[in-house]
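We close this part of the discussion by returning to an individual protein. The sequence in question and its C-alpha cells are set out directly beneath this paragraph:
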Amino acid sequence: MSPPPLPGRRRPVPAVAAALLAAALAAVPSGPAHAFTGANHEAITRAALPWEPVTLTAMADARDGAINGNDHRPYFDVGPLHCDNADYLDSRDYPRTRDEATTELLACVRTSVARFRGAIRAADGLVDADGRVRADQSDLSSPCAWDGKPGRAKCAVLEQLGRGWHQIEDFYSHSNWVDRPAPGPTGLDNPPGLGRTDVAPFLDIRRHSAMEDAEWTREARARIPRDLTTGCYPDMDSTGLKPADCAGRVAHNRALNKDTAVSARSKTGDNFRHATAGATAEITRQWNDFEAGLLAAYPDHRRGAQMVCALVHDDPATACPPD
C-alpha cells in the first residue's frame, strides 16, 4: 500500500509509529501552525455545506467538529492526513524527485478515497431496508465521539467524511496550487506558485473510489503538475518515516503554508483568500459527489435519497418521512 523507504535517504522509526501510520492510511475506524486553524476549517466547512445547524456544527466546530479530528493526536502527526511532505522544486540538486513528491501527494489522496468508501458503507445504517430513517441511528442529541468505534450511523458517516475532507482542505493551504510567490527570485524560501482557480482534478475522490487503486493512482499521477509542491513538515510521511528536519527542502512553516492570514505566504497578494476559497469550492464538490454516490449506491426504496435527507437535517425522523 505504501512505497518502501528509499535506501540511504531516511532513518526508520519505531514499529509502533509505522503501525499507527499504516492504520491511518488504511482509514480503519479505530506547536507551530500545521493546518488551517480550527476556526478556518470551521469557516470553510460552514460555507461549503447546506446543512441544518446542529448537524453542521457536529461537522464543522472549530474544536470538536469531525472536520478537525485529524488535528488531534495521534492523527496530527501523520503527514498524509494533512497533505504534507509532497515538496519539490524543479532543481537538479533538490533532495527529492518529482516522482517521490507525487507519491507522497497520492498517499494523501488515498486517505480521502478510503474515507469516502467508509462513509458510503456507514450510511447503510441510517435507514432500514424499506427506506425509513432510523431515528436511533440519526440522532445527534448527544455528541459524537470521533473515536472510530462502533456507534450511531450518522456519527460514523460524519467522522469518515470529516477525516477525509480535512486533508483536502489542507491541500489548498499547504500547496502552491492557488497562490503566487512573493516578488523576486523563486527558490526554497519563495517557491513558485501555480495560481490555479479550479478545483484540483486529482482530488476527484468519488471517481477514484469506484476504481481499482492502481488504476486511479495512475490517472491521478498524470494530472499532477510538475511544479506542484506542498511543504515539508517533520511528521510521518507515507513510508512511516519521520524527517529529522526540513533543511534544504521547501518548508511548510517557513515558506508555503497559508494556515492563517498572518503566515508568510499569506501576506503575498490574496494568497490566503485564494486558499480558503479553493478549499470551500472543493468541499462543496466533495459533498455533491458524496450525495451522488449515495443515490447511486442505494437506489432501492429511495434509500440513498433518505440517507442524504438524514445527513442534512437535524431531526431526520420527522423531516424525512418515507413515501
